[in-house]
Amino acid sequence: xxxxxxxxxxxxxxxxxxxxxxxxxxxxxxxxxxxxxxxxxxxxxxxxxxxxxxxxxxxxxxxxxxxxxxxxxxxxxxxxxxxxxxxxxxxxxxxxxxxxxxxxxxxxxxxxxxxxxxxxxxxxxxxxxxxxxxxxxxxxxxxxxxxxxxxxxxxxxxxxxxxxxxxxxxxxxxxxxxxxxxxxxxxxxxxxxxxxxxxxxxxxxxxxxxxxxxxxxxxxxxxxxxxxxxxxxxxxxxxxxxxxxxxxxxxxxxxxxxxxxxxxxxxxxxxxxxxxxxxxxxxxxxxxxxxxxxxxxxxxxxxxxxxxxxxxxxxxxxxxxxxxxxxxxxxxxxxxxxxxxxxxxxxxxxxxxxxxxxxxxxxxxxxxxxxxxxxxxxxxxxxxxxxxxxxxxxxxxxxxxx
Length: 402
Prior knowledge:
This is Putative CoA-transferase, family 3. This protein has helices at 19-29, 45-48, 59-64, 80-90, 100-106, 110-116, 141-147, 150-158, 168-191, 201-213, 253-262, 277-282, 284-291, 300-309, 327-332, 373-379, 384-393, and strands spanning 10-14, 33-38, 68-73, 93-96, 121-126, 195-200, 239-240, 245-249, 313-316, 335-340, 344-349, 396-397. By secondary structure, it is α/β, with parallel strands linked by helices.
């Protein structure tokens, strides 16, 4: 069966780069029709996301924009504003991640849109919200990682700050926004009323950090230093083997005993520092020095067999080269291949969520800029001569003319 709870919902996608496209991609996984509005300059991620055969669709752009129809509009040109207004009228949900000031200048902010269309769900994804001292400032994922203390966690652990080498804040905030939109759609179906949603990346990711690492400072007065000292241990890293690295976690008392036996450390079985959860919490530095020590007496494959036999959660530490070939991912078919209209044979990553025993079908490949301009204009009431006038004036562009 096709599980498409959002079938019939049209989402107008006024987003670019990562955080917004991730949000709308997720809504598309649930069956929503996504209409992506792109400027003649194009989404920055078309080139910023890496090299591609034609220079039009980076790998990242392909994956974040799957299943979306594309209309290319130049909002500086006469006539484009009327097109946007018709598209808004035809949509159920509007998602934007432009700066609030830019949206206000264009008349595309939540207040303006919902004054005309109170039944619309409008979601603004921002760096810092609209009501604090940072409101309206530009930001990117790495800046948010620093501002929220994520990079500072690396400073506490490793002695210098560092970024997580993926756009983790964009992904998380995008998924949070998709969840908020789903909640608003449920309410809209019950009441008929729309909703204005605001998802600030800074507060969202700061909340994640503080929920874990406020820790002992959650109490007044504090009962210890801030931070989960297990996660901040310099030994909290993959462990070296004879030919690579493995990653494992041991939390319960039976797991700890099994680990000590499997790694020939029976002399520590009755060590009072490690016999129970409370003792290991009091002696967290010493415990993580034990569990983080190199295991170079055996290969990765050998350690995987030993630790799995002891029912310990363990996996190899993959690289970007090895991850696509993980036997589990290959068996469940996470990555497939398809023929893209301009890029040739390309990887296609399916949804990781299964409904009623089946994964949602892979939606159409990411489209060239303006691929659906003419058909979308027809759908919102433009006749062929009016479409030709918009194309000639540069207010709209179609793929064949870009």
